[in-house]
Amino acid sequence: MVGESSFDETAIKERIIDVQFAKSDRTTEHTKSYRNLSKHELRLNGLGKALLMLVMNMPDDAVDGLIQKSRVFERMDFETRTILGISNVYLGILLIKELYESFGLDFWEEAGISDKLVQESIINNTYNSLDGSSKVNSAVDLIIQTFDVMALKNRIRKDYDYTINESTGELCLRLNLIYDEFTKYIREFNVSDVEVLGIRQFTRQLRRETYWLDYGLRNFKERDNNSNDVNIRQRCYVLDLKKLNENLSLEAFACEIDAEEDSGFMKIDNDQEELPFD
C-alpha cells in the first residue's frame, strides 16, 4: 500500500515489483506456468510456511549474511529505492536457495537456472519496468520533455521564449511566457501522461533537480512596435544543458554528450536466455 495520488507516481514506479497479468504482457509459457501453479495451492502454502519458519528460526548473523549477499546491485545506475526493491527480490531467491539446501538439495541444479541468470533477469526486468531507463522521469522531467516537443513544433520560439548557449552549456527558459502556452498545449492535444503542476509548484520542484543552475538575467529577443527584433535582458530559469540531456531524451534542447567507455556497471547481453517458467 503506497499513499500516492496516481499509479504513475515516481515513488510507486520505483518501489513496486510488477507482476503482469494482462493478456498483452503474457506469453504462452507465462500462462502455462500460472495455470500449473494454481493447481498446487497446498504446495504453495507449504512452501510459504516453510520459508516463514526458516527465517523465524534463522540466527541474526545468518540473516545479516544473506542481506549482504543480496546487495549485488548497488553499483547499478538505479535510484536507491529501486535498488532496495530488486535487492529484496534477490534476497527472496536466496532464501528459497537456503530452504533447498536445508533438505540437501541444490537449488540451481533443481531449478535449471544459474545465479548469474537470475541477477541478469532481475536487472533486465527492472529496465523494462522503468521503460528502458534507469530511473523514472519526475513530473518536472516530463514537463521539460513537453517543452522540447513544443519547441520542435514552434509552439515556443528559440531566442524569444528560450535560448540554448552551447558555449556555456545553458538552456534558458522564460517560464512566464512558456508555461501559459504549455497549459494550452496540454488541453489542445489532450495529453494525459503529463501532470500539469502549477507554475509555482513546478519552479519549486525544478530547483531541486540535478540540472538546475540559476534564476538570473540572460539575453533574449523581442519584437518592438515596428515588428523589428530587439535584444533585451530578461530573468529566466537556467538549466545545465549537459545534465539535462543525460537525464532526458531531447531533440530541440539536445546537445552532444561524450559517452564514457567504462561506466563500471554490469553489462547485460541483449541475446541472453530468459528464465524458464515451468
Explained architecture:
With 278 residues, the chain is of the alpha+beta class. The chain has 2 domains: 10-129, no CATH class; 139-247, no CATH class. 47% of the residues lie in helices and 12% in strands. It has 11 helices and 4 strands. It has helices at 10-15, 28-38, 41-56, 60-70, 80-102, 107-111, 115-129, 139-152, 175-189, 199-206, 241-247; strands at residues 162-165, 170-173, 212-223, 229-240. A 4-stranded antiparallel β-sheet has the order 1-2-4-3. Helix 3 crosses helix 5, helix 4 (60-70) packs across helix 5 (80-102) and helix 5 runs antiparallel to helix 7. The longest helix has 23 residues, at 80-102. It is elongated.
Mean pLDDT: 85
Q: How large a portion of the residues is in β-strands, by DSSP E?
A: 5-15%
Q: Strand tally, please?
A: 4
Termini Cα gap = 30 Å
Give the count of helical stretches.
11
What structural category do the secondary elements indicate? alpha+beta
Brief rundown of the structure:
With 278 residues, the protein is of the alpha+beta class. 47% of the residues lie in helices and 12% in strands.
Give the tags.
about 280 residues, alpha+beta, 2 domains, four-stranded antiparallel sheet, about 45% helix
Please write out the topology.
Layout: H1 10-15, H2 28-38, H3 41-56, H4 60-70, H5 80-102, H6 107-111, H7 115-129, H8 139-152, E1 162-165, E2 170-173, H9 175-189, H10 199-206, E3 212-223, E4 229-240, H11 241-247
Antiparallel strand pairs: 1-2, 2-4, 3-4
